[in-house]
Amino acid sequence: MKSFLLLSALVVGSLSCSMGRENQSVSKAERELLQLERSLIAAIQTKDTEKLAGIWADEYLGTAPDGRVVNKADLLSAVKGGALALESLEVADLRVRLFGDVAVMTGHAAVKASVDNEDYSGSYRGTGIFIKRQGRWEVIGVQVGPTRKCVP
User: What number does CATH give the domain 2-146?
Assistant: First the structure.
């Protein structure tokens, strides 16, 4: 299970990393989300489960590319195990929508990564849901799925 858990967290976690490049008039909330995402990626790479415990909301639920539903405890356990090796990640088509203290982020990520020495490189689309509580943003949900070419 941990193979897609980390990949899911990483893909959606990285979606906002291109936010500043795509939109020069970034709001304060978007800047805060950008910083949160940078912290999320760094914490995954350094296995900082204490920092991740503060980023992922206690009631976090996510859907991995294989359809499994995962929670905060699942993700923290997977990160602690150190299964993810990330070679590169390219983000495109980012969209951020703010609804008061809730933000929804969608985007695309081309990923070169392995989990438990198994290749999970590919093209993924993701949606992240964030909530602002007591002045700080938390990730409350994520959905990640592989992209496929569709024939019109």
Answer: 3.10.450.50
